């Protein structure tokens, strides 16, 4: 297998652009379009008996877990706990009852996540793994392997593995919801339809690349950047901040929009850009009011929203990035693209080693 950058300047950019294809490839192994169902591979345990879900991962993969918590709780009405693997294994977690333990990992080798998986198994927990490398330790050890088909990811900062993990997490949420009797056939049909549209929506987000590149210099000049979001876009804000930190070395924080007034607002002045991830919907008004609080203190806002949201609040922002209007379930897969591209272009402007940022490793096999 030869892996090269093709016509791209960096692996990261190539991998960002591969997302419509690899997400489609991943979804193909979970969607049953004729039956209008979302399927999982064969398993030797009963999903309907599960009473609680515990998701453990590191870094970008842990944000997939956080987004999964929103999805699984709202769709399947099961309580979900999410933890970073390094904390999980040392806090003597309570694992009684019928728990489904889920690990999420691109490499399948991250030391803390692997140790967390072994801890869960030793505690008698049934495990599933959303994993990209099928030959990895985690892939071999989980009870149920839920593969992502992102292909090899070379850039240290995870991009395509993340969106593929989200696609599989959505499939898991749907299956838990059906097993728990919380999903009607017509709701599932609607979800299949929307997931099928996801690759095209990701593609539409990629079309904003030039606009994003055009605003990168504002971010590149900043010392601190804040990312805000609500609901599943809150973990996306964390992911946006992590991407920027990892490859551009600019200090960035992701916050739940409503938490801004409990601390980070103290940092805001006209030197601090604020990236707001806010698809139109029931939470939009609230996020926009948080955005206005920040603007009253001079913040330069980049609003990432759809046409409906931008029509409502876009004029107030310093810059806007228009996303396609999508079902809330696939919004994180789509909003991943502008935060990845923004981090990428800022890093290129700063002249950093985009694919191999300092001090970071692709796969962290030590604690
Ligand atoms: C490293 C990488 C991150 C990744 C994390 C978890 O820190 O730089 O991009 O999210 O490990 O890796 P995994 O292989 O378990 O997904």
UniProtKB/TrEMBL annotation:
Residues forming the SIS domain are 43-182, 215-357
One biological process term in Gene Ontology: UDP-N-acetylglucosamine metabolic process
Q: What GO cellular component is one of the record's annotations?
A: cytosol
As its record notes, the protein acts as a catalyst of: D-fructose 6-phosphate + L-glutamine = D-glucosamine 6-phosphate + L-glutamate
Repeat as UniProt keyword:
yes
Q: Where in the cell is it found?
A: Cytoplasm
| Catalytic residues (UniProt) | 362 (for fru-6p isomerization activity)
Q: Does the keyword Magnesium apply?
A: no
Q: What is its EC number?
A: 2.6.1.16
Question: What are the UniProt keywords, alphabetically?
Answer: Aminotransferase, Cytoplasm, Glutamine amidotransferase, Repeat, Transferase
Query: Which one of the record's GO molecular function terms can you name?
Result: glutamine-fructose-6-phosphate transaminase (isomerizing) activity
Function description: Catalyzes the first step in hexosamine metabolism, converting fructose-6P into glucosamine-6P using glutamine as a nitrogen source.
Q: How does it assemble?
A: Homodimer.
Stated name of the protein:
Glutamine--fructose-6-phosphate aminotransferase [isomerizing]
- Species the sequence originates in: Sphingomonas paeninsulae
Span within the entire protein?
241 to 607 of 607
């Amino acid at each position: 297998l030869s892996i090269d950058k093709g016509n791209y300047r960096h692996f990261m950019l190539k991998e960002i652009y591969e997302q419509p294809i690899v997400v489609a490839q991943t979804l193909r192994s979970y969607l049953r379009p004729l039956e209008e169902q979302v399927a999982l591979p064969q398993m030797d345990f009963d999903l309907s008996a599960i009473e609680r879900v515990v998701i453990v991962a590191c870094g970008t993969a842990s944000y997939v877990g956080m987004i999964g918590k929103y999805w699984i709780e709202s769709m399947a009405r099961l309580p979900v706990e999410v933890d970073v693997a390094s904390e999980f294994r040392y806090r003597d977690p309570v694992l009684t009852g019928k728990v489904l333990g889920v690990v999420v990992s691109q490499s399948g080798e991250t030391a803390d996540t692997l140790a967390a998986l072994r801890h869960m198994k030793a505690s008698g927990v049934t495990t599933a793994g959303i994993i990209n490398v099928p030959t990895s330790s985690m892939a071999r050890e989980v009870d149920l392997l839920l593969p992502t088909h992102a292909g090899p990811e070379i850039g240290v900062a995870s991009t395509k593995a993340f969106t593929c993990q989200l696609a599989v997490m959505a499939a898991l949420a749907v299956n838990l919801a059906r097993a728990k009797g919380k999903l009607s056939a017509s709701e599932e049909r609607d979800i299949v339809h929307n997931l099928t549209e996801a690759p095209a929506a990701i593609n539409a987000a990629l079309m904003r690349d030039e606009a994003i590149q055009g605003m990168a210099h504002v971010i590149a000049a900043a010392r601190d950047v804040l990312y805000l979001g609500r609901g599943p876009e809150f973990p996306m804000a964390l992911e946006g901040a992590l991407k920027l930190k990892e490859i551009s070395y600019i200090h960035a924080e992701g916050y739940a929009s409503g938490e801004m007034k409990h601390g980070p607002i103290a940092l805001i002045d006209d030197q601090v850009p604020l990236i707001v991830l806010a698809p139109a919907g029931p939470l939009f008004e609230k996020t926009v009011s948080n955005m206005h609080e920040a603007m009253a203190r001079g913040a330069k806002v980049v609003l990432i929203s759809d046409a409906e949201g931008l029509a409502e609040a876009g004029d107030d922002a310093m810059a806007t990035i228009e996303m396609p209007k999508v079902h809330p379930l696939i919004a994180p897969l789509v909003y991943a693209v502008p935060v990845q591209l923004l981090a990428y272009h800022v890093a290129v402007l700063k002249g950093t080693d985009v694919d191999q940022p300092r001090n970071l490793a692709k796969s962290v096999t030590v604690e």
